[in-house]
């Protein structure tokens, strides 16, 4: 148990190795469900839960899985967990289940889940693996939240629309109408809006990372940093 | 050779073992959540039905009082669908049927209609569609109240020529730049009302809580 180790894992998932804006894995859900904050965060959290559970499930059995069949076994475990999450959402969050629809079973095919299981959980103990999966999922959720917020704000002029689907009728008046009587901006809602928004987020992340690096080296060789803008 | 066979067998047993565990976890989750899923699906259906059939119009268990309807070109569907019957004091008051508008701007538009015993429309809702967001999607209730324009309409009040958008000389509103969508919906609703008129007795005839197949008039003629 080393606090620093957990901090590093968390920082990796949220920022340094962020699945959404650095690794660019799992583009399908990012582009498809980021049309509003609620949709994005819901699918992001569902993915985070699946990733944490699959990390925790794969790590303890890693010694018993022969190398040749590890991928089928991992996929099997992930598929079981996703289906369990799907049943639970269908039973207890029906409205949201209908909205997210096909994207819940598609978490299985989200390469980021298998990637973390293969790259991390198959080499590390259970607690760290679960934490890694959760951190990665949370990083994805953060990107989906920001991207969903941007698209919803520009597309519909609202924030948090559809929150009642996730939290029940009582949350209906949480919806924020940022721009009243907004006519809508179709581009932001349609798929191109997702690509443009994601591009901006990646640019923003790179800008912040490079600036942080430059500050750290302040007085050092700035030209070198500019010449070779490493992604991470 | 023997060693390869043994290690293959071991691998296979390993895989079967994990598959068995996975199946056990899945089936137990299924049984734990099954009742809740059925309940929420029925609640959702009832919510949709009460949107178009006001609760004051029925006192029966609409979800259970069903009837299987064969596919009919007038309904635009290609598979059997379920109709729900609303009754007040045992008397039929309305029937809820599904219909499909096949000629939307981007594919099929699935509708649900409630027709009163008198032949008047109690209401129409769009269940699913692929029309352009922000343009053709005003047929959805959350986006606009256009779909409520069907409330109370019937084929007695409106002739065939009225069952068109205003642009085509009919009685129904439309939004400039998105006429294909409402045109498809109006046409499908009109056809569904023709279906209702032809099958009215069959739709209401059956006694409470018995599901029975209703053959469309056309199918009957064919049999003769």
How would you explain this protein's 3D organization?
The complex is a heterodimer of chains A (232) and B (224). By secondary structure, chain A is mostly helical. Chain A has 12 helices and 2 strands; from the N terminus they run ααααααααβαβααα. Chain A has a two-stranded antiparallel sheet. In chain A, helix 8 packs across helix 11. The longest helix of chain A is centred in the middle third of the chain and has 31 residues. Chain B has a 6-stranded mixed sheet. With 224 residues, chain B is of the alpha+beta class. About 5% of the residues of chain B have low confidence. Chain B contains 3 helices and 6 strands; from the N terminus they run H-E-E-E-E-E-H-E-H. Chain B has 2 domains: 52 residues; 166 residues, no CATH class. Chains A and B meet through helix 5 and helix 6 of A and helix 1 of B.
Write the layout of secondary structure elements.
The complex is a heterodimer of chains A (232) and B (224).
Chain A: H1 3-16, H2 19-23, H3 27-33, H4 37-61, H5 70-92, H6 94-100, H7 111-121, H8 126-156, E1 158-159, H9 163-167, E2 176-177, H10 186-189, H11 191-216, H12 222-227
Antiparallel strand pairs in A: 1-2
Helix pairs in contact in A: 1-8, 4-5, 4-7, 4-8, 5-6, 5-7, 7-8, 8-11
Chain B: H1 2-52, E1 66-69, E2 81-88, E3 91-104, E4 107-116, E5 121-128, H2 180-205, E6 213-214, H3 217-223
Parallel strand pairs in B: 1-6
Antiparallel strand pairs in B: 1-2, 2-3, 3-4, 4-5
In short:
The complex is a heterodimer of chains A (232) and B (224). Chain A has 232 residues and is mainly alpha-helical.
Q: What share of residues are in beta strands of chain A?
A: under 5%
* Helix-strand sequence of chain A: HHHHHHHHEHEHHH
Strand neighbour order, sheet with most strands of chain A: 1-2
Query: Helix count of chain B, per DSSP?
Result: 3
Q: What is the CA-atom radius of gyration of chain A, in angstroms?
A: 19 Å
Give the chain pair forming the largest contact, with residue counts: A-B, 25 and 22 residues
């Amino acid at each position: 148990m080393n606090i620093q180790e957990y901090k590093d894992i968390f920082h990796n998932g949220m920022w340094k190795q962020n699945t959404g804006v650095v690794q660019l894995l799992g583009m399908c859900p990012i582009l498809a469900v980021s049309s509003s904050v609620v949709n994005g965060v819901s699918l992001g959290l569902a993915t985070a839960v699946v990733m944490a559970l699959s990390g925790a499930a794969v790590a303890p059995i890693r010694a018993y899985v022969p190398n040749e069949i590890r991928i089928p076994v991992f996929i099997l475990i992930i598929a079981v967990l996703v289906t369990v999450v799907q049943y639970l959402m269908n039973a207890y969050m029906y409205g949201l289940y209908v909205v997210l629809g096909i994207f819940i079973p598609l978490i299985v095919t989200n390469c980021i889940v298998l990637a973390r299981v293969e790259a991390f959980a198959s080499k590390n103990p259970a607690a760290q693996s679960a934490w890694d999966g959760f951190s990665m999922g949370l990083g994805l959720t953060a990107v989906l939240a920001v991207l969903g917020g941007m698209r919803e704000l520009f597309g519909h002029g609202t924030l948090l629309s559809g929150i009642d689907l996730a939290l029940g009728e009582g949350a209906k008046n949480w919806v924020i109408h940022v721009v009243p009587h907004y006519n809508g901006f179709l581009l932001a809602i349609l798929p191109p809006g997702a690509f443009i928004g994601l591009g901006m987020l990646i640019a923003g992340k790179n800008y912040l990372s490079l600036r942080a690096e430059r500050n750290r080296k302040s007085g050092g060789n700035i030209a070198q940093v500019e010449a070779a803008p490493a992604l991470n | 050779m023997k060693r390869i066979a043994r290690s293959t067998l071991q691998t296979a047993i390993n895989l079967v073992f994990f598959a068995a565990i996975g199946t056990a976890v899945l089936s137990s989750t299924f049984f734990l959540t099954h009742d809740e899923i059925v309940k929420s699906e029925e609640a959702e259906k009832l919510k949709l039905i009460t949107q178009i059939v006001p609760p004051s119009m029925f006192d029966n268990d609409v979800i259970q009082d069903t009837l299987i309807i064969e596919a009919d070109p007038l309904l635009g569907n290609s598979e059997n669908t379920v109709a729900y019957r609303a009754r007040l004091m045992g008397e039929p008051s309305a029937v809820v049927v599904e219909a499909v508008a096949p000629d939307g701007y981007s594919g099929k538009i699935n509708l649900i209609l409630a027709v009163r015993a008198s032949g008047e429309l109690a209401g129409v809702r769009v269940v699913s569609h692929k029309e352009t967001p922000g343009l053709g999607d005003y047929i959805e209730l959350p986006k606009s109240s256009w779909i409520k324009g069907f409330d109370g309409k019937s084929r007695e009040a409106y002739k065939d020529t009225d069952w068109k958008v205003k642009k085509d000389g009919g009685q129904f509103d439309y939004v400039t730049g998105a006429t294909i969508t409402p045109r498809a919906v109006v046409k499908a609703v009109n056809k569904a009302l023709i279906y209702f008129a032809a099958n009215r007795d069959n739709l209401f005839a059956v006694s409470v809580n018995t599901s029975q197949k209703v053959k469309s008039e056309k199918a009957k003629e064919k049999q003769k």
